[in-house]
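FORM 7B: Structural annotation worksheet

SECTION A. Query
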Amino acid sequence: MTGRSAAITGGRDHDPSLEELAALLRLLDQHHVTELHHGDCRGVDRKAAGHVHQHRPGIRIVPHPANWRPHGPYGPLDR
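SECTION B. Predicted structure
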């Protein structure tokens, strides 16, 4: 079976528990995930990505940081 991509998104103020992170690893294993995408935000995104990187080094971690100012630092916020 070929690998699959998965995305993780979550709250900036949520600190995932070890039980939640272990459940994430089980899901990634069950679905043969080889690539994990995340928004590179504090909280769930970075914590989950770091945990997966540490415990499943074969999974490629792909951050997608938000570009809130696509028109430069003095342009309008694009939300």
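SECTION C. Observations
Helices lie at 18-30, 44-55. The first strand starts at residue 4 and ends at 8.

SECTION D. Sign-off
Analyst initials: ____
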